[in-house]
Sequence to fold (852 residues):
Amino acid sequence: MQRRAFLRSACLNSLAVAGAVGCLPVSAWASDTENMALSVEQLPPLEGDLTLYLGRGEGGLYENVLEAIRKRNPKFNLQVRRGVTAALANTIVAESKAGVRRADVFWAVDSGAIGLVADAGLARPLPAALTGQLKPGFQYPQWAPVTGRIRTLPYNTERVTPDRIPDSVMALADSDLSIGWAPAYASFQSFVTAMRLLEGEQATADWLKGVSERAKSYAGELGVVMGVERGEVDIGFANHYYTLRLKSGKPEAKVDLAFTNNDAGCLVNASGILALSEGDLPINFIRYLLTREVQSYLAREAYEIPLVNGVQPPQGLPALSAISPPKLDLTQLADLRPTLNLMRRVGVL
Amino acid sequence: MTRWPSSYPLAALIALLAILPIGVLIDLAADEAALFDAHNLRVLSNTLLLMAFTVLGSVLIGVPLALVTAYVQFPWRRLWLVILAAPLAIPSYIGAFTLYAAFGRGGEIDNLLGVPLPAMDGLPGASLVMILYSYPFVMLTTRASLLSLDASLVNAARTLGMSLGMSLWKVVLPRVATGIAAGGLLVALYTLSDFGTPAIMRLDTFTRVIFVEYNAFGLSQAAMLSLQLLVIVGLVLFLESRVRGSREKPGRHLTLWPDRPQRLLIALLVSPVILLAVVLPLAIFAVWLAREGSAGFDLRYAWNSAHASFLAALCAVVLAIPVAHAAIAGRAGRFMERVTYFGFGVPGIVMGTALVYVGLKLPFLYQTLGLLVLCYVLRFLPLAVGSVRSTAEGLDSSLVKAARVLGASPREAFQRVTLPLTLRGMIAGAALVFLEAMRELPATLMLGPTGFETLATYLWRVYEAGYFGRAAIPGLLLVLMSALGLALMLSGERRAELEVSGK
Fold:
């Protein structure tokens, strides 16, 4: 009954993502083994005060998840500070240097920012039972990936044919396509960090310079995808789900996804969460985000890729096996400072 | 032996507080000495170009409108004046937001009418928005000067055979040049400190780049940029202090009676401005409201806005009283007053950067409502000081002397004579501070307590997330509150400036 209520409120609050499949309770996961996603039914209720730094500006789906958790736990007082992911990560580090701690939990849209905080020695270790539920390759002792996202190239189907799109992201700098990007956006900066680690400083600087000559800047990557759809630019850089969400609300949208091959252009990144203060409450809160209900909700409504065992991936995305992401340890993406310096030096930030 | 007026120590303390941010910024900037690079040069030129275009455009629109509203007789003059001043009630970032959403391929105008218009962004877009929302400054200052002129000079010129246009150009305009300059400098100041418009129009000006640096927590670089911006602001403030209004003995007002085609022509010329600056934003909000309703909006945001702004208004007025009295009492006090004026020139984003750092040094202040209110007070104190002082100056000092002769102590004289008579100024000052605090965006984003969402920050959040439709309610509420404030101003302090003359 309570789970129903949880799901219903989550669904009712969802944005007008037309065509969303009905809010059917998950049923396919009857064989609850130890390493499978738990249901919210199996979790202890949350009680007490918790401050979450949420590295996400939008007033949408993550909010709905938090709202549903609040409704389910009336004795739980959750304060949320929203902001740009990188800014919040830096804030947390600056706060700890000043001897101040305001956040108990940090939920970031990309793992680079998580790594930044973890490298500063601020993350509390997570219990093995919690990390064990995550898919292989996504198990880390100090933080938990929540959902995955793939770097993609959304392109305007009226202005470009797929064969004009190079399958190497580096080659894009020399193409004649007009490009939309969001250099101030955390996911983009993580992508540049990946490029820096894979291709080196100089190649990345040249690439940024080359692209910036034909690039139009947007505030965020939803803006990029909308700009591509409107035909303001031929092609853009954005996480996969913005395109899928746009298309689900507007099936005739003139935008489709292209993938590059084995380079930073198709990096699989993850949003992640870590605990900054001790105690059970932060850990149990993280457990809620890894439940079947939340994971399948985010997959269904937000088109994000669930990273807990036994939850189905979103529709409209090629199978992960069809994509060839580069091999890269996600926590290395924490090395953000040189990226920002580089971007600033080249004049794109 | 000279006794220092009793208001001096307090005023000196407040003045000291007002320049605290500069000290903080210098300290911060000392960390990293990247004083200037190629990127900075672009930022500098963008900022100066935006300022120049905005001032130029505001003069080109504001001066003719001032002439029309001051001299030309047509029906419903008062209404027209209010409508033409109405862009003041709309924070420019709201204008930028709605114009940005309306224009371009796939913009709202394209969606509704199928007419794809060129996108509104970059330097042209930002300039247009800034002009639309700041020309009333020039219009109002120029109009005030125009109304203080004597028409007989124009009449003499015309009797001697000069055409009307020529006589306006050669006889009238030179005498209101200071009024125009004062308005232009206000516009320059406003443009320098605006954050939302360049951010939404994606133009790298100082304020936008400072925000990017702050978000990467490059506090020292943000501080360095802030200091560079403050140098420009200081220059404008200096120029402003040089502009002195020349006073003529007011005489008969010039009155022009246009015929029908002329009236039509005027209306035709004025309408694009009103359409773009007032009708379009409201129409876009109406469309969004109809489409999305009140989804996601929480009344608490409005309450938070009002609550913080009210506290700021209250504190500002309380602090303004000693400063205003010190300013009247003597030269040293006047200097202290000038020092507090500095805060108004400091853009919110710069003040925010400095105070975040203060907060980290003094954790009991960090992320508290107190620090946010302090920021508002430091920025908007001059508004309160100005209106408290002008009413206090208008006070007939013989009343206080009479009270003293009749045996009242200075304290009693203040409480029973001065205070009641200056209450109006205090309320006007408080209203101004309240309004400005309500609209302040970047400082609120940086300093607000966790979970403390205001109308302005919520608006910014939905813009960033691309959920434009959700901006309707907070946007309309902000405009409504600003309009109420403007009405208060029109009926109070600024009455003299806006009074329709010739009656």
Observations:
- The interface with chain A takes residues 37-39, 42, 104-106, 119, 199-200, 202, 212, 214-219, 296, 360-361, 363, 366-367, 450-451, 458, 461-467, 470 of chain B (CB under 8 Å).
